[in-house]
Design brief:
The protein contains twelve helices and 20 strands. With about 425 residues, the chain is an alpha+beta fold. It folds into three domains: about 80 residues, 3-Layer(aba) Sandwich (Rossmann fold), CATH 3.40.50; about 270 residues, D-amino Acid Aminotransferase, Chain A, domain 1 (2-Layer Sandwich), CATH 3.30.470; about 60 residues, 2-Layer Sandwich (Dna Ligase, domain 1), CATH 3.30.1490.20. The strands form four sheets. Strands 9, 10, 11, 12, 13, 14, 15, 17 and 20 form a nine-stranded antiparallel beta sheet that branches. It has a four-stranded parallel beta sheet with strand order 2-1-3-4, sandwiched between helices. The chain has a four-stranded antiparallel beta sheet with strand order 5-8-6-7, covered by helices on one side. Helix 11 packs antiparallel against helix 12. The longest helix is centred in the middle third of the chain and has 14 residues. The two termini are about 35 Å apart.
């Protein structure tokens, strides 16, 4: 099958390697010229010009270019982006309203466009709240979970002196277990149900900046369960009405008896999706095509009960991108050697900011992008075994100043056991 991967910042470059390795003919394009050297020597050189009609499938590796995806969809099956996906992820207000229309409970929330009004709200409710930017182009890394009403008030006062946020949501904090439910929608029904537990903070103990992912655990239940039925599944009628096709992840917080929707992720979840490639009981490229074309693949049990990742990086990560602008000349990790990885055998590794050393056959080095090494993808019959595979892979690496959290396995295991004890993972049907 001929596949084109359309990328903005090369986040999904590893999927080019994987799909080519699975026997597909894969080309790719990247919008940001600074990212053209990601996985250089390991995957084809990105194209400058493309004709979507020349491919059987076009894959968009992230949201943000939904209008382009919808245009391409008129001539070629597309997976990974749409105008609706953009709104669900980037317009927090729309996303919460969509949950409510679907019948998914959400914590109490209000929208503000003035910081003074936000502070008055915090003083009035006298509860822990969560700050979520929702204006067009606002910095999502400013999302903040306050420890107290006073903490949020101080955060708002400091934030609005440092960065301009046009519009934001203030939402009541719910203490519970955070868990994501993802499934793939072919326009009519769901496939490949899976759940993810993710640690987002940079440092062990859940402190430091929110990096999106520091490691996670993924599994595919064979049948439906309460997490799915009381959350994501309820969105099906609205998605069908809107003509939505693709993956959709609902991030939730659950307590002893309640489920609350938090956010949507209607795109590749990177480490989470990489985990899925090791669990899915069929070729990933064939699965993507089936979803994009409205097919109904017959999926048996997952290849493994669990898959896990631990994100690896080198300094100055995470002081880059949205967290702190760093000029390319200041990125000291460029050229750092990467030893302990076989460039011909990366099915068990999600690799990011590296390339084959020019002129060599198997030597890898970091490039000047974000300082992300990537993540080993461990599998196992238990949570502990999956993370043990990750650690074994990490121990084989030789990378100067390698950094990662050493408590992801324990944190995910504890949260999984909580879900079990509260009955959320009981299968139905």
């Amino acid at each position: 099958m001929r596949i084109l991967l359309a990328s903005l910042n090369a986040d999904g470059a590893w999927f080019v390697w994987l799909l080519n390795h699975q026997g597909h003919q894969v080309d790719w394009t990247v919008g940001n010229d600074d990212c053209r050297h990601v996985l250089e020597g390991l995957i084809p050189t990105p194209l400058d010009h493309l004709d979507p009609a020349a491919y059987d499938l076009v894959v968009f590796d992230m949201s943000g270019n939904g209008a382009d995806a919808d245009e391409v969809r008129k001539v070629t099956p597309v997976i990974g982006a749409s105008a609706l996906a953009d709104k669900l992820e980037h317009d927090r207000e729309f996303g919460l309203e969509f949950m409510e229309r679907a019948g998914i409970p959400v914590p109490p929330w209000q929208v503000f466009d003035d910081v003074a009004d936000g502070i008055r709200y915090v003083r009035k409710v006298k509860k822990r709240v969560v700050f979520k930017p929702c204006g067009e182009g606002d910095d999502s890394s400013c999302t903040y979970v306050a420890k107290s009403p006073e903490d949020m008030e101080r955060y708002l006062e400091v934030l609005f002196k440092r960065i301009h946020v046009k519009r934001f949501v203030m939402q009541e904090f719910i203490a519970g277990t955070e868990v994501s439910t993802e499934a793939w929608f072919n326009g009519e029904e769901w496939f490949a149900l899976n759940h993810t537990l993710e640690e987002k903070k940079f440092m062990s103990g859940g402190i430091g900046p929110n990096t999106g992912c520091a490691g996670n655990l993924c599994w595919m239940p064979l049948r439906s369960n309460s997490l799915f039925e009381r959350g994501l599944m309820r969105a099906a009628p609205l998605l069908k009405e809107a003509g939505f096709v693709g993956m959709l992840d609902l991030n939730t917080i659950v307590t002893e008896g309640n489920l609350f929707g938090l956010e949507w992720t209607p795109r590749f979840g990177y480490e989470g999706t990489c985990n899925l490639t090791r669990l899915l009981p069929m070729d990933f490229g064939d699965f993507l095509y089936a979803m994009a074309a409205g097919g109904s693949p017959v999926l048996g049990p997952a290849k493994h009960p669990f898959a896990a990742t631990i994100r690896l990086s080198v300094p100055p990560y995470p002081t880059n991108g949205n967290l702190m602008k760093v000029a390319p000349s200041e990125k000291q990790f460029a050229g750092i050697p990467v030893s302990g990885l076989d460039p011909d055998n990366l099915e068990c590794w999600y690799v990011c900011d590296m390339r084959l050393v020019p002129g060599s056959e198997n030597e890898l080095e970091m490039i000047s992008k974000d300082g992300l090494v990537g993540a080993p993808i461990g599998v196992g019959d238990s949570v502990e075994q999956a993370f043990k595979e990750c650690q074994i892979a990490i121990d084989k690496l030789l990378i100067p100043d390698l950094q990662y959290r050493n408590d992801v396995a324990r944190c995910c295991s504890n949260r999984y056991e909580t879900l079990l004890s509260q009955g959320w993972l009981r299968t139905t049907g």
